[in-house]
């Protein structure tokens, strides 16, 4: 029998009497089974922690297996259930801590999660994608002569370094144009470790914290800026693991909005008419989850986009800001069940189509990559069903600004 050591677990059982958030849960909605919604997951947790009279009489006990773990991990950790919870259960923290306690008691997370963990601590990679360390700065090292020390360290993150390199180059272009005193950690940067926390694999997170904080200090930084909401939240957690953490942590949209407010960056070129209208997608970790933790970033990306000439007013999804629907790429879900992840993404694209958008913008490299792949899938789906052509542009906020300067 697995004994979970989760504070106030009994209080969460009130969830079993409700189920209101079922229709709000991205995975529950696309799967159509109660087991994948919050109440279904709480039910399975109860099965392994609480044994009734008949269970004891008949010596029945439930032993979790790989399939049970996969069901529990089939979740984007988007926190949407918490946003609508009638009893104010802090579900985002609860799901993360539940994963942690299960793993610490010997249960294995789904295989893809383990592979990412091993890759992060493999000295050849130091990232979850099994990409060579030396490739981390290959897209910019020959074009940018950055200082060894600076007030601002741009923490690029694994996704942007290895997969969204166009976004990386646009951030560097914008920061340089604005005259920002910044540098990067190049190949000294290691994975922030956010994926470890999402998948319950907290072991050795302290190593990543100490390494990256040491590199911040070498560069005499006072501010750490990152465009990845996962890194943004992960780096903030370093304060729990190091003796001294005296850095200001900012998302790239915060510093960009400030540059525009102070007239340090002039946006001259018009947003192309063919890309209008544009709808903004709120990344879960940047908006709703950061709001749970005391600092939501909703307005800065919208202000930046509406500062671009000829872009006009940014459109909104039917559910936005606190109630934004996940893109499907959160919580390590792609490593657990890629098909479920993709189904969630396609529902997001359908929403964009329904409101007549021509472009989707976000402020997260994971959302950027996830939605881009989703638009390609939607293009194939429409072509197969109707023979018609489909086009939806996908941008990061910095992609839009880089074209305007």
> Number of DSSP helices?
20
How does CATH name the architecture of the largest domain? Answer: 3-Layer(aba) Sandwich
Rg, Å, rounded:
22 Å
Q: What is the helical fraction, as a range of percent?
A: 40-55%
Unreliable spans are none
Which strand order do you get reading across the main beta sheet? 2-1-3-4
Overall structural class, as computed from helix and strand content, comes to alpha/beta
* Count of the domains: 3
Mean pLDDT: 94
Major sheet characteristics: 4 strands, parallel
In the CATH hierarchy, what is the class of the largest domain? Alpha Beta
Number of strands: 8
Reading the helices and strands in chain order gives HHHHHHHHEHHEHHEHEHEHHEHHEHEH
Shape: globular
What is the CATH topology assignment of the largest domain? Rossmann fold
Distance between the termini: 61 Å
Strand content: 5-15%
